[in-house]
Amino acid sequence: MDGFAVGDLAAGGDVAEVAATATRLLGDLGARVLRHAPGAGRGPGLVPPLTVDGVDLGRAVADVGAEPVALSDSPGDQDPHAVLAALAGTGGGVDAVVVDLATYRALDVPAVRAAHPHLVLAVVSPFGSTGPRADWVASERTLYALDGSLSRSGRPGAVPLLPPEGIGTFTAAVHLAWTVLVAVGRARRTGRGQVLDVSVHEAMSVGLDPAFGTQGSAAAGRSGPFRRDRPPADSYPVFACADGHVRLCLLAKRQWRAMLAWLGSPAELADPALDTIAGRARAADVLHPRLAALFADRDGADLVAEAASRGIPLAQVLTVADVLHTPHFAQAGSLVDLPLGGGRVARTAAGPVVVDGVRLGAGPGARGVPAPRHVPPPRRLAADPADLPLAGVRVLDLGVIVFGAEVGRALGDLGADVVKVESLDFPDGLRQTFRGEAMNASFAWGQRNKRSLGLDLRSSEGAALFRELARDADVVLSNFKPGTLASLGIDHAALAAANPGIVVVESAAFSSGGEWARRLGYGPLVRAACGISGLWRYDADAVDCWDGVTVHPDHVAAKVAALAVLALLERRERTGRGGAIEVAQSDVVLAQLAPWIAAESARPGTLRARGNAGRGLLAGDVVACLGDDEWVVVDARTPAELAALAQVVGTDAGAGRAVVEEALHAWAAARTPLEAATVLQAEGVPTAPLLRLPELKDDPQLVHRGTYRALRHPLVGDLPTEDASAAFEDLPPLPVAPAPLVGEHTRAVLEAHGTTPEEVERLLATGVVHEGAPAGVPA
């Protein structure tokens, strides 16, 4: 992204952390970042500043590599038009500027368009610039209530548990960076800038743990009515060991049988029903005491090592303090030094993307996509405004489960021709269904806008055929264990020998550069090993972690990988070269926790699970309302908000937090969540009702923005699905093609590549390729 520049004018607003993180991500990929920070500092924001010894660590992390734009404090110089003009006149100008809603409303937008016709103006706000909630105030905590996350987090029958701080705003930042890069690339090729209207609420709803999106192999086969209460998180139980806790993640039958052998194959656990996740959950009262006894007296690292030797997915539940001293993260370059001024240094997370062997965002010399030797002629991206941004881009998608589905979907939604390459012998776990149906909703969501090629990569002829297809491809996507592509002869080095412009993505649970590279890497184990699970507790001394239902970080990690693909396609426009991308899910988790890692490094003992006790609040809580399991989240962060809250609930702000919160609980118990939120929002207090997943499709703000559209699949029916164009002003209608059956397009893909019908028949007969019936037609 050399030659790209982005300005940040949102540093003093309510979405400062989202804008700063998004521009940092773009800076890591090579963009020049120019940040204007008003002298008055910023308000409470979606998350309060995390300050240690006078240093705002969130800002310190985001400012790595950014250039400050210094203007005087005079009113004229602080006028947004003056700031915008200063950015536009800095070293060749800027391609995009990120602003908050207040700044946008102060701009003469027609005048800005006339002066800067190529400019992408990205407006980011809690809810978007229009709609019934456009003027609501928000915190990350209240947005967790509105995006569906809170509804499935916590102990069944208990108070819902807010997810850990920071993962929501980071998710929104990735969404913002993606949207900006798509729009900037389009503006550079069409000459047309545009205004982007980016909603943090919407970004979290579709990107954190989406209600209508890919749900993971453990959930893909589930059936039955929606559960109102928090679902049990017993699929991935946590047990005490001699030096902490470990998490077990048994999904496959072979993993359970290996665990059974480790337990000594007791007769009471011999029931074949325990071969399934549901069966083990029903037998938890018998099974869990056995597991607890096995793990209790041994150190976590020893247990994990033995489990790995047996093929059993197990991980230690580490704290962020543990992460700082874990050899794998040091070996992989996942942690770097962060200067704090005055000679002080803290350790924090590096960038989550590795390109051509260089970790981006790891300090001086490691920012920006490395620029290889020019190899003409480069393949050009779509320049016609009538085309989708990635029209003509050809993708071979080897990805599986959630991450694998979502990277390809992001590219396919923008017009890329994505061919899912899959095998009958090693099916995508996302295809499993509860009763043997042809397809489930999760697969339909994640694999839309793709075609399917049935191909046996394990055969030498199949691998050779893949290499032939890759000669004309632009992107290859995979999320196998490190080294798998190389063992098949289809890694970047092998493919680039014949196609220098190809971009190859490899992703695994843990980075290839450390000793955990080949660990079994399900999301629950990644979260446990990176500190997220330990924070997802009601209090620091609790055993149970309540992140068992989420599929985080798959969705946001996939969007990070897609962002890196776009950056390399932009580089290829200039150089003709593609590149190798690595995105480890663990590194994405650490990037989300970067300010907290720095805080723990600078002041050990800083970071502990807080439950629902919000940091930086003067008063607030997850509060029960009128009705069955109805809740509202209330956050008073400033004296003005505290005074308004106290007045509404009939007490005095000076009476103390406990008195105000007691009055709040009594007041809310007589009102529905929406009634309570409406009254408190009218007084300027961040408040939101808890929404359950099915309610999101009818949420007035999301309906206003067009967040969801209909996905029609002949095998699944009509489903609500994300409309990826919601934030864009200038984008052609996006496709919503149904997900394919295995091998549904094998003939079409091969014949378009030049394979004769006779050769296709031979490949089918020998099992090198296979095909299925079109979707909706019985096989």
From TrEMBL:
<dbReference type="InterPro" id="IPR044855">
    <property type="entry name" value="CoA-Trfase_III_dom3_sf"/>
</dbReference>
<dbReference type="GO" id="GO:0016740">
    <property type="term" value="F:transferase activity"/>
</dbReference>
<comment type="similarity">
    <text>Belongs to the CoA-transferase III family.</text>
</comment>
<protein>
    <submittedName>
        <fullName>CoA transferase</fullName>
    </submittedName>
</protein>
<keyword id="KW-0808">Transferase</keyword>
<dbReference type="InterPro" id="IPR050509">
    <property type="entry name" value="CoA-transferase_III"/>
</dbReference>
<dbReference type="InterPro" id="IPR003673">
    <property type="entry name" value="CoA-Trfase_fam_III"/>
</dbReference>
<dbReference type="InterPro" id="IPR023606">
    <property type="entry name" value="CoA-Trfase_III_dom_1_sf"/>
</dbReference>
<dbReference type="Pfam" id="PF02515">
    <property type="entry name" value="CoA_transf_3"/>
</dbReference>
